[in-house]
Amino acid sequence: MRKPCCDKQGNNRGAWSAQEDQKLIDYIKTHGEGCWRSIPEGAGLHRCGKSCRLRWINYLRPDIKRGNFGHDEEDLIIKLHALLGNRWSLIAGRLPGRTDNEVKNYWNSHLQKKLINMGIDPNNHRLNQILPRPRAEHAAPVMATSTTTGSKNNVAATKPKKISNGDSTDRVSDTETCLEDENEESMVTQQAATSCSSSIHIDLNIAAPASPGQRTTFENKQENCKWGKTSSTVVTDPSSLPTLLLFR
DNA sequence: AAGAAGACCAACCGCACTGAA
DNA sequence: CTTCAGTGCGGTTGGTCTTCT
């Protein structure tokens, strides 16, 4: 397999210092985002390009929105996850100012637990057979309070190892979307979007994400028709799916 | 007050994809 | 057509903070 790009000896690793951040910001401000490989050298950073890119995209970019996720953002993530699975960059693309890493972390640390508490399997967004018994004072679904479940280990335990069979479409196989069988995804997403209750009005067409210039592999695949699966049936009425609780 | 357990999140790692040579 | 460098993405890790006992 490929050699990692970050095997260069002498590179810093771990947390970024304020000085390093500033160097990166200054460099990108003057030269723009370009060849990530050349950025560390140009900026005088002892980091690999990959690390610089990550730091910039996830933390230093000026349009990053930091802080708690709003209620509608949460709602949107859940809905998008139901549609798209673990395609975090796509999901993040619909949330202005949010990064894929942030969305992913929020999902793993908050939303999974929330869904579990609501009796919904976060992997496929289906209603679980056995609902967790709500506490008397919390008859309605509520935000996950501090529970003993859902620790890092528990979360990890729910995640099967990545299946690497060379078929990139299977990269989301561990968290199948409830609409996984769709091959007319954009159509379905539109339908789902219209069936969302909602104060949230979004365009769920699979198109260029909110952040300009960012083109995902997923979208490339879309364009190249590599989604490939043609055998599955198209569910034209999402309301017929018993699983899409959140779209009612 | 102190240690343990849990929660959160920044960063790293490995793999897949693309495009140029 | 093949190879390889560059890049992006998703999964995972590990450090730090917070809460619990």
From TrEMBL:
One cellular component term from this protein's GO annotations in UniProt: nucleus
Main location: nucleus
MF annotations from Gene Ontology: transcription cis-regulatory region binding
Localization in the cell: Nucleus
A GO BP entry: response to other organism
Classification via SMART domains: SANT
Region (Disordered): 143-185
UniProt biased composition (Polar residues): 144-156
UniProt entry keywords in alphabetical sequence: DNA-binding, Nucleus, Repeat, Transcription, Transcription regulation
Residues annotated as domain HTH myb-type: 8-60, 61-115
Pfam families for the chain: Myb_DNA-binding (PF00249)
Residues covered by the Myb-like domain: 8-60, 61-111
Subunit structure: Can form complexes with MYC2, MYC3 or MYC4.
PANTHER family listed in its UniProt record: TRANSCRIPTION FACTOR MYB8-RELATED-RELATED, TRANSCRIPTION REPRESSOR MYB4-LIKE
Protein name as it appears in the record: MYB transcription factor
